[in-house]
Amino acid sequence: MVSGLILIVGILFLALGLITDLSVKKIPLKVERVIGEKLVPGFPGTRLGSLDPLLNQIMNKVPEDSIVHKYGVKLYSYESPEINALAMPGGRILISEGLLNALESENELVMVLGHELGHYNQRDHLRGLGRGLGMVVLASLITGPNSRMTDFVMTTFLSFQLNYSRAQERSADEFGVELLIKHYGHGGGSIEFFERLLVNNPHPPEFLSTHPDPENRIDHIRELIQNSGVGMGETVPFQIPAELAK
Questions:
Q1: Helix or strand or coil: residue 73?
Q2: Is the sign of the CA dihedral 223, 225, 231, 235 positive or negative?
Q3: Helices 214-228 and 192-200 sit at what angle, rounded to 10 degrees?
Q4: 49 class by beta-carbon count within 10 Å (0-12 exposed, 13-18 middle, 19+ buried)
Q5: How many of the other CB atoms lie within 10 Å of CB of 94?
């Protein structure tokens, strides 16, 4: 009896994992937005409207057929000395004040934003919801995305943990570098920020440590710039967003 129950649970666990992997790119945005609204209250932040003009310019460089355009991406900051940025389900990019304070150029911010947009492009952030996402998809298909059952399933089974694979991080970096070059015409600001983080931090911050080898990540970005043929260029000094200026 017990062994049979364990077998059923094991099959269900594997099935949910398969559903998650197969459904990530097909999940309707309205379902993702409901998920995002459920998760975002746990990440209070300040809306960075002063960065909208820059974000809009970057979005104009995103390929026309990319799903990123459907997100209506908004930028938020949150209080934390940690250096990190999060692409949340539904289109909110959360940037820690620690990261914003560590930037020295606008170009570096564009690289960070381009990287997070790259995760949206591949919908990598949804995989961070784990197997609970498969249960939410099933509940939303059966009872609707705004039903009490779907809300119960999200509350009970969803957990948001960003553990991107090496391939996902490389793809996001490539997307970010492409947008950076399209915006400025060169690769200045693509690696300087990451190099400073490695030099100034004995233990790489989460923003770098989620990648298996930060130094290889920097080398890959440098290689992308070299292969593009545009080289590095002069960067634009970064100013703290007006919403956070003291």
A1: coil
A2: negative
A3: 160
A4: middle
A5: 22
Domain boundaries, the chain: 18-228
What does the chain come to in residues? 246
What is the tens place of the pLDDT at every residue in 147-167? 776 666 655 555 555 567 788
DSSP assignment string, 22-71: HHGGGS-HHHHHHHHHHHGGGS--EE-GGGHHHHHHHHTTS-TT-GGGGS
Query: What is residue 27's predicted lDDT score, i.e. its pLDDT?
Result: 76
How far is Cα 206 from Cα 213, in angstroms, rounded to an integer? 12
- Provide the sign of the torsion angle of the four alpha carbons 149, 150, 151, 157, taken in this order: positive
Which helix (H) or strand (E) covers residue 10, if one does? helix 2-23
Rounded Cα–Cα distance for residues 180 and 114 (Å): 7
For the full predicted model, state whether its pTM sits above 0.85. Answer: no
Amino acid type, 173: D
Residues 130 and 142: their CA atoms lie apart, in Å, by 20
